[in-house]
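User: Structure tokens for both sequences below?

Assistant:
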Amino acid sequence: MHLNGMTDETRIDELVADLRRGPLAVRRAATAELGASGAVAVEPLIAAMLDGDNDLRWYAARALVQIGEAAIDPLLAAMRAGENRDFRRYAMAALAGIGEAAVEPLIDIIECADPALQPFAAMALMKIGEPAVEPLLRLMQSPDPKTQERAALLLCRMGETGAEPLTGALETDRSGKR
């Protein structure tokens, strides 16, 4: 049942139920259809992730990646509201999968030093890779030494993607302070 290209609430509920108990092919099809449903599916997917097992979380996270940018703020709000580590891990995996659009909200978590979410945000930024480099370099210019340290550590942990820009920034900083 599609209405104007969007999946109606009843169908979304059916698809989420398929994610919970369907065979593999049914779960995959439900993931694809939920992902194509857009923003209307975000809250039901997050609710399923909050009370489901890790298999359900994995399929729901994949659908949220397909939905993309519309899922970012609701995922972060749900992560802040609850303390379920498994939920947070899969939510951050979804944010990493969304990619570049999630970088700035994740950078905000690093900058604010939110102790509950920071490890998850760091993991997501490292997985996103290249699009996170410039925002992390920007954080290295923060007046707060701890923020600078967090940004440098993340760039270092990104491997080659972050190490070269980090080295360049440190060399520029060193030569600029002479």
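Moving on to the next sequence.
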Amino acid sequence: MSDITQTKPFSLTDALDREALASAAPSQAELMQELRVRPKPGWTSRLPPSLAAFVTNPKGMAGVILLLALVLFSVLGPMMSDYNPNRRAGKPHVAPGYEHVLGTTRMGKDVFTQLAYGGRISLTVGFGAGIAAALIGLAIGISAGYFGGRVDDVLTFFVNVILVLPGLPLIIVIATLVEQASPLVIGVVLALTGWGWPARTIRTQTLTLRTREFVLSAELMGEKKWRIVLVEIFPNMLSFFMGGLVLGTIAAILAEAALEFIGLGDPNAVTWGTMLFWAQSNMALQSGAWWEIWPPAIAIMITGAALVLVNFGVDEITNPQLKAGRKISLIRKFLKRRGRSADVF
């Protein structure tokens, strides 16, 4: 006798329940939108994974676009102007208009031309000092943390000396000795005094990495020291290197502008800092000539904001814990909106 399989009769209530569940379940597109997961463009598959992740990062790309806009303006801006930044181009304090896009200073100089030429020097000094300080800090920090022993003791001593050596007062002393500190002198002093904190941070991280399994495995396999440093340790220091680079560049640009604003720089050099110095000396705000002081101030603020956005983008890519924390917070909010428990996280 064959077994007769008994099936539960299908009711209209069950059909309605299934239909309701199906209609309540979100689609894949809705889930991706709520979790803020964006499909990656197809052309990014040809790029290296780290570069593809940075290109698809909104914060990082926004910072890069702003920086490129400033660099292009500084490079191509003078070509679009017929005026000399050091010579008179019109009447004093002419408001922005067709002939002078950003107006003129009290001395009759074109503000647009000065802003473009000043960007060349200010960005060069800032990026030069920031890159130099970050590279010095990276080399000294990794060397001290990885090799240890006497190398660590000697390099740590120099790091401590640099940390207690103030950069701005040193530039002030140099400016009083040479009468006028040029942008090159300011950049060199900032580069030589700004690598202390990056070096200490990278040294601390290197001390934790040199006992990891992948570093010990490379040493047991007989890999050379320089290869272990470049291939095994340096990629894990990218976020700290970018952090030091961004902070060093911002500090250099602000320090140069501050020193030139208080009159310790070369007043004949055309930079964003000297533009602020002459605007303050000529009482631009008191006379209502806002166009003389706001353009260089806004340029400095945009440069700092762009560098911070680039740092945020790099940190989100190279820091898995930060990236995972952001994803978990989005999943928590998603589950709470669905009335589900989020205690699993």
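User: Anything stand out in the second?

Assistant: The chain has one domain: 60-337.
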